[in-house]
Amino acid sequence: MELALQFGWGMMGHTRSLLREWGSGTVILSPRDLSDDQLRRFSKDVRKLNGELLVDPQFYLPHSHHHRLVAHEYWPDDYDSVVFWSGSELEALLTRLHDLNRDLDTKATLLPGLHGSSVSSDWLIQQQAILEGAERVGIPPEDSFATVALSDTALLSDANVEDLLEGSRDWSPHGVYLICEHPQGDYLVDNPTWLANQLDLIAGWRLRGKQVVVGYSNHQNLLAAAAGATAIASGTWMNVRSFPPDKFRVQYEEEIRRRTTWYYAPAALSEFKIPYLDIAARQSLLADLKPDHPFPQSHTAPLFSGAQPSATGFSERDAFRHYLQCLRIQSEAATDLSFDRTLDGLQSTLDNAERVLDGLHAVGVSGQGRDFGDCIGPCRAAIGVLKTTRGPVLRREWRNLTT
Amino acid sequence: MIDLNWLKAQFPALSGLTRLGRGGQKEVFTANHQEDGEVVLKVFHVGADRERALREVRVSLDLVDARIPDTYEVGTADSPTGEVLWVRERLIRGQNLRGVLAHGPLSGDQVIRAAMDLLDVLAAAEQLSIVHRDVKPDNVIAAEDGSFWLIDFGLARHLDLASITATGLPFGVGTPGYAPPEQFRNRKPEIDGRADLFGLGVTLYESIEGANPFRANARDNLEILRRTETTALPSITRAIVRGGGFADLIQAMTRTRPSHRPESVAYAREWLESILDER
């Protein structure tokens, strides 16, 4: 499973640096965070660095009226009327998006998709209208992804998930760009039904031969490897590592304002504020948080040099790059040669995280809102459901899904 | 009940007409035909649903070369109570699978043969957008030569034609314990070949284990439907093919949600072939 970079606020430098280091990679550009001019200039930079591009049109919540989004040329003036979905306005939007994708030389077109508070027949009709409109304006299905943006309520409903899988059987695009709101705006999800249903959607589409890119992901979506996901996309701030329900958006923006630095410990699947690393050091547990091989030490070496971690100057920049470096390695390693080996690998990652966290919790070291402790059980439960419901078919198709 | 003497007079080419059974829609007879040999004669009741009967006939005419009995002739006759539709088809010598299972489960080889033969028929039906909707041991003939045949397309649906079952009805057609949830819940857009995979999966499970857990000791039909909707079949206890592949296939075919079953009958047949290749 690949890691794509989900572009967000202040990510240009990180993207350039990471692509330079990786030698390649996919970047999902965010018109919400880039003006039209920046979009064009930055996409050139990405291509120069051997990167590939996708543009998320971010039409899932058109009423959000973000000033930079509405300033983009493709953004329609009026999308309130029902006629928009059956008239020329939709085709105009798709034509402009098609032009933008061609100008930026993207590897595929992410089609717009409206946020679904539930998977209703009306929502499915709108999705279908977009897909049909895209074909009419000449966007080839083999080069396009349908965007599926779902509310937490929709994803918590087994019936909605089944309706979506059944309702999308005839969708023509080559792939699905899946964006799922987290329950209660939580960064990490501790609801096993939500997790199991997300895996079910991914596996359902993958088994139909669709590529599935799971947008707005954090490391919890390493689970998506069990369902054969093509890629997860993640970024720097919390608002590009999880798709917040609209009412929690402000809370996510607040995180950027506060600028707290979090250190990601891949073995614990958790992030910690730096003062907690000081405590872990004093309790002789810092070594448990050290990113051992194959994770790079370049950004984190000072933290584990013996000095007090909070005195090492570990910066926000280091934290972001370290997180994405680790996540890329974990994503690539998450997919194994067989379905069962992939599940075993994920189970072992969860077991190890549990062991590390037990030790840390015993001495009061916690990742607070980014501590994975409460998510381990739900993740195991979700994997268990996937194994029961789709295991036989995934086992049989694994090679086709992952090569 | 149809008068045998009247029937003999209508079909002078048939000898040895013997009543085989009587159902809600038709009466079935066996006989010898001068040219075609042993045959089955189905005579639909005067009050039978004519459109449904014609669909059954049409399905059997469309599905040539599949393991369903050949249809030789179709016609109508004026009976003392009104006009009746009749169908004359090949008699498959053998026993209904329900009767076979009354004496115990099938052998491993028989299960594999049943799976292959019935997947063949259902895949042919799927190609023509036909769903049988009532795959169960009662509708399978275990022939004397070891092959398995699917009969009674009386509930079949042609997906490209308008539905005969009213869309608003809370329950659809089918047999409790063999029909999948989307079928008995009458969720028509979800019904396709995967519904038949469910019925076949349960039939094969019963052929292996000797019982259908959805039906065994159930209080009533509602209890059967509840079990079908909320529980999965237990794991198969007999190894039919070396490795777990066959058990996996049955498990996948009988998943509650259609999206969790193999994508199509053709896919399931391919899967079975690959399991057998790897033996």
Topology:
The complex is a heterodimer of chains A (403) and B (279).
Chain A: E1 2-6, H1 12-22, E2 25-29, H2 36-48, E3 51-55, H3 67-71, H4 88-104, E4 109-110, E5 115-116, H5 121-136, E6 144-150, H6 152-156, H7 158-167, E7 175-180, H8 192-206, E8 211-214, E9 231-234, H9 249-258, E10 262-265, E11 270-273, H10 274-282, H11 316-334, H12 339-362, H13 376-402
Parallel strand pairs in A: 1-2, 1-9, 2-3, 4-6, 5-6, 6-7, 7-8, 8-9
Antiparallel strand pairs in A: 10-11
Helix pairs in contact in A: 4-5, 7-8, 8-13, 12-13
Chain B: H1 4-10, E1 14-22, E2 26-33, E3 37-44, H2 50-62, E4 71-79, E5 82-90, E6 94-96, H3 97-101, H4 108-127, E7 130-131, E8 140-143, E9 148-150, E10 157-158, H5 181-184, H6 193-209, H7 221-230, H8 245-253, H9 265-277
Structure description:
The complex is a heterodimer of chains A (403) and B (279). Chain A has 2 domains: 2-256, Aldolase class I (TIM Barrel); 259-391, no CATH class. Helix content of chain A is 45%, strand content 12%. Chain A has 13 helices and 11 strands. In chain A, strands 1, 2, 3, 4, 5, 6, 7, 8 and 9 form a 9-stranded parallel β-sheet that branches. A two-stranded antiparallel ribbon of chain A has the order 10-11. The longest helix of chain A is centred in the last third of the chain and has 27 residues, at 376-402. Chain A is globular, with a radius of gyration of 21 Å. Chain B is globular, with a radius of gyration of 19 Å. Chain B folds into 2 domains: 7-90, Phosphorylase Kinase, domain 1 (2-Layer Sandwich); 94-277, Orthogonal Bundle (Transferase(Phosphotransferase), domain 1). Chain B has helices at residues 4-10, 50-62, 97-101, 108-127, 181-184, 193-209, 221-230, 245-253, 265-277, and strands spanning 14-22, 26-33, 37-44, 71-79, 82-90, 94-96, 130-131, 140-143, 148-150, 157-158. In chain B, the strands form 3 sheets. In chain B, strands 1-2-3-5-4 form a 5-stranded antiparallel β-sheet, sandwiched between helices. In chain B, strands 6-8-9 form a 3-stranded antiparallel β-sheet. A two-stranded antiparallel ribbon of chain B has the order 7-10. Chain B contains 9 helices and 10 strands. With 279 residues, chain B is α+β, with helices and mostly antiparallel strands. Chains A and B meet through α7 and α13 of A and α8 of B.
